[in-house]
Write the structure tokens for this entry.
Amino acid sequence: MPETLGIAMVGCGGIARSHAFALTKVPNARLVASVDIDEAAAIRFKERFGFETHSTDLDAVLLRDDVDAVVISTSSKSHGPLIIKALEAGKHVLVQKPMTASVEEARAALALAEKTGLKLMVSFFELFLPPVERAREIIEAGLIGEPFLFKAIMAWHTPDVTNSWRFDPALAGGGIMLDGNVHHVSNALYLLGNPEVQSVYAEYGALTADIQVEDTAVIVIRTDKAILEISGSNRLQEPGGATMAFKDQWAVYGTKGTVQWDAAARPTFRVYTSEQSATDKLLADGWISPKLPVMAADHREFSMHINGEESPWVPEHQHFVDACLNDTPVRSDANFGLKTQLILDAAYESGRQGRKLPIGS
Ligand SMILES: NC(=O)c1ccc[n+]([C@@H]2O[C@H](COP(=O)([O-])OP(=O)(O)OC[C@H]3O[C@@H](n4cnc5c(N)ncnc54)[C@H](O)[C@@H]3O)[C@@H](O)[C@H]2O)c1
């Protein structure tokens, strides 16, 4: 078994900084190549994070024996073809959400991952937030009883609707549902133990500007366990300006209590349980803020809206690297990615038809 995983980073833009930073903190990761169609971006990454080389030619990089895995953080519509290319070259893949921009591409990616036996993990960084992990334990232990409602919103402000790829369907493949709501679809599936999805209904549209993809969306999902209400927008106006205005909250309501997280609140994570066996008598009947592991200061990634103490990026990348080296399962694999894609696909179709729909299989 190799001791280190050689990694090529494809796409050296905004969120790739979080991936690259995290990889510099993973001892068994080797940063081999930064790749971007924009050479200046690839060079910046080499210089900033210490990649051994840079390139604009992914095909050439994929021929290298010392590249074992590819981290894809390009604009969303390119994810599908890049996953296929990397898997065909025999490389493990960690791909930014959304896994692909269509169900067909997701199915093809899953089939190839299964055929090759390579890891295909979708980067849903919130699944590695300590409060998400703690909430899942609390729910699994029955401390909030039977969950009946998951309610979430993720919203931020993208000011320039003319130049960002996010508003170009040919590069983005969709709007805020693919870009933002997908995070909380993933959180809900994970927190509720992968419930069976019975129906999906969505309202969405371009409500704030003359653009080709939706900037605002609400998805309502009926599962065998709970109803999920997942809202999103990339046109939020709140204090903090274009880079810092960011709302990211979710809550799970159960028959015996509630868990809730709000990235901007302190503490971020609060729990109420009426399950007497779980509560200190002094705390019973009130909100409690369970102690969470605190990320070391030099491992706190700089993504704008997450409390640094909860930074999930290093644990996520350690998990991926260890899974590739030891052939252990990844938390959000291609099946998980496909399920999020099926839900989003049903949401888009539901909006077009104006009625709730089942998800495909
Ligand atoms: N998890 C999160 O919090 C989060 C946050 C932001 C973005 N994202 C996702 O990450 C992806 C990238 O978003 P971003 O905001 O970093 O975008 P960005 O525009 O800042 O960066 C994308 C980079 O990819 C490069 N690129 C595009 N196509 C390429 C190709 N075929 N080959 C090589 N390089 C290519 C571009 O030149 C650019 O440097 C998107 O899928 C987005 O949905 C996730």
